[in-house]
Design goal:
- By secondary structure, this protein is of the alpha/beta class.
- It folds into two domains: 276 residues, Rossmann fold; 197 residues, NAD(P)-binding Rossmann-like Domain (Rossmann fold, 3-Layer(aba) Sandwich).
- The chain contains 25 helices and 18 strands.
- The strands form five sheets. It has a seven-stranded mixed beta sheet, sandwiched between helices. A five-stranded parallel beta sheet has the order 1-3-2-6-7, with helices on both faces.
- Helix 9 crosses helix 11 and helix 10 crosses helix 20.
- The protein is globular.
- Pfam families: malic, Malic_M.
- Keywords: Metal-binding.
- This is Malic enzyme.
Length: 611
């Protein structure tokens, strides 16, 4: 595919004004880097690509952004080689292709070479969104024998809350692009049948992102140079006005996608501000095959980590959920991740609400019996609020631990690195100094590692090796009290690729909450003896495809049992797994060896377009 196939609607505003992708890349701030990357990226085999990448990465983790730029060039030049390379070394390269490196990449997205992959839908195109998607589809997708564009999945964001970095507007495109790469590498989606999307409704100024970067008003910003138009919702939160109502921007986009690609096309919300994420999910979840990974996927993998922790603590236990119902949980931070996990434990796993304690900046979230008083900020926080005002200073995390006596401490604060202090961890250890006490579970989920509530080394040190630890960003293997420990990476990529692939393949009508608990169990049950020996609550990323297949199989069986599946894939786990495996996309390594420019997928289709 040509770099400059005409696109007037589905490219970002500034790129169209510049004359297209090639013209944009000739900008003085880009042309030298564009030429340099083209000179470096010469690999024709997986081994050559790995050699070139390792050379860049050998300079230190601060150079992983250079490796990211290399990978984006490789993805455009040779998609099959790109995916084969990622699949060959997932533990090494997934942190470069996606989190944590993608966060910095999004902050600097306008300063890196741009490629055609990615559909930008502007709020100025309301009433004409279908035409925008159709233009992109005509340039980037194939048609089936009936003349319909083939699209299995779309990941869409408005850039309003990119990881923990805040509002980056159209620079947030790196997230849908990277997410869909994981859909392919981990889940088996055909990359030519996926679309990353940014809904451009404006961008905040420097106050809208955590690093106070000049994004919207900088020379290289690609999107609309305007503030987001917001209003107060019924819950009292600031929401994007254009997203709601009968002619809402998000609803029009989702209806247009289904009109073009069919109701089987999975539409995944990604990195919307929490104030919009919850109401948008509630509005659309029963109308489309859709979910919000920040709320539901993060919740699922957090619960998977808890279940994995139980397997470490009680290897002979087979009913993990029965054990979960006996535990007490403390969620520090009340964003979408923690609220989603708390709700999943209460509503699906059956944990009594009194055993699920959440905090916000006011301390423990509580409400009066009549709901007239409380520290909750929205209805999602109210749903997990404890009954009655705490009789102690609940802004003091050590005091909260002492009073609530949690078995599990989960942090997803985002902006409070190091808040799990020595005193907090020591308090967690003391909780387990009781008859039948085991080891505390401590999960620091904030990304990147610089924002983590605690590091792996400190958690082990402060607990004298007693804590079982997991984190959002992977920490290196450590030796603790003479024993090797590999902290589990509590990352959504263990859940969303397999869950999405299973739901898509069986033609599920919707994605209910039950799927996320099922996925969590499937991930935990994928732990092997090696993982357990290393004290890891989640499987090694090296087995990510295997885990995704386990999740997909479990989700399909759930969908069939619930009457949601429209396509029957098998009567049992063995037959369903076999069917799914046949449908997973893989790069054709024989074709890779034969020719760089004559690549075919394993289905024997025509050479893939450049992504």
């Amino acid at each position: 595919m040509s770099l400059d196939r005409p696109r007037l609607l589905s490219l970002p505003t500034a790129v169209v004004a510049a004359g297209g992708v090639s013209a944009w890349n000739r900008h003085p701030n880009l042309k030298v880097l564009t030429r340099a990357v083209a000179t470096i990226c010469k690999a024709q085999t997986v081994q050559e690509a790995l050699t070139e990448l390792r050379g860049i990465m050998s300079l230190g983790v601060e150079h992983n952004l250079g490796a990211y730029v290399y990978l984006r060039k490789l993805a455009f030049d040779n998609p099959s080689l790109y995916y084969a390379t990622l699949m060959s070394e997932p533990s090494l390269l997934l942190p470069v292709a996606y989190t944590p490196t993608v966060g910095e990449a999004c902050q600097k997205y306008g300063f890196m070479p741009l490629y055609p992959r990615g559909c930008y839908v502007s709020v100025t195109d309301r009433g004409n969104v279908k035409a925008v998607l159709e233009e992109y589809a005509e340039a980037m997708l194939r048609k089936d024998q009936h003349g319909r564009y083939q699209c299995q999945c779309m990941v869409f964001s408005d850039g309003g809350r990119i990881l923990g970095l805040g509002d980056l507007g159209t620079f947030g495109m790196g997230i849908p692009v990277g997410k869909l790469d994981l859909y392919t590498v981990c889940g088996g989606f055909d990359p030519e049948k996926t679309i990353p999307v940014i809904l451009d409704s404006g961008c905040s100024g420097t106050e809208g992102n955590s690093a106070h970067l000049v994004v919207r008003d900088g020379d290289m910003y690609t999107g609309l140079r305007q503030d987001r138009v917001k209003h107060k919702s019924a819950a009292g939160t600031d929401v994007n006005s254009c997203y709601y109502g009968e002619d809402g921007f998000v609803g029009e986009f989702m209806r247009a996608a289904v009109s073009l690609f069919g109701s089987r096309c999975l539409l995944q919300f990604e990195d919307f501000n929490s104030n919009d994420a919850f109401p948008l999910l509630a509005e659309h979840r029963e109308k489309f095959l859709t979910y919000n990974d920040d709320i539901q996927g993060t919740a699922s993998v957090a619960v998977a980590a808890v279940l994995g922790g139980i397997k470490l603590l009680k290897p002979s236990v087979t009913n993990l959920l029965a054990e979960v119902r006996k535990m007490t949980f403390l969620f520090h931070g009340a964003g979408s991740a923690n609220l989603g996990a708390a709700a999943l434990l209460i509503n699906e796993a059956g944990v009594p609400p009194a055993q699920v304690v959440c905090t916000n900046s006011r301390g423990v979230i509580w409400r009066s019996q009549d709901d007239q008083e409380g520290s909750f900020r929205n209805k999602e926080q109210r749903a997990v609020a404890q009954i009655g005002r705490p009789g102690y200073d609940s802004t003091d995390l050590v005091a909260v631990v002492a009073h609530t006596k949690p078995d599990v401490l989960i942090g997803a604060v985002g902006v409070a690195p190091g808040c799990f202090t020595r005193e907090v961890i020591e308090a967690m250890v003391r909780v387990q100094e009781k008859p039948g006490g085991l080891r505390p579970l401590v999960f620091a989920l904030s990304n990147p590692s610089s924002q983590a509530e605690i590091t792996a080394a400190d958690c082990y040190k402060f607990s004298n090796g007693k804590a079982i630890f997991g984190s959002g960003t992977r920490f290196p293997e450590l030796v603790v009290n003479g024993r090797h420990r590999e902290p589990g990476q509590v990352n959504n990529f263990f859940v969303f690729p397999g869950l999405s692939f299973g739901a898509y393949c069986c033609g599920s009508r919707t994605i209910p909450e039950k799927f996320f608990l099922t996925a969590a169990e499937a991930v935990a049950n994928s732990l092997d003896d090696h993982d357990i020996e290393l004290d890891s609550v989640l499987p090694s990323p090296e087995r990510i495809r295997e885990v995704a297949q386990n999740v997909a199989t479990a989700v399909v069986l759930d969908a069939q049992a619930l009457g949601l599946a429209t396509i029957h894939l098998g009567d049992d786990a063995v037959s369903v797994a076999a069917t799914l495996k046949k449908q997973m996309w893989n790069p054709n390594l024989e074709e890779l060896s034969a020719s760089r420019n004559s690549l075919k997928t394993i289905t024997g289709a025509r050479p893939p377009s450049r992504l």
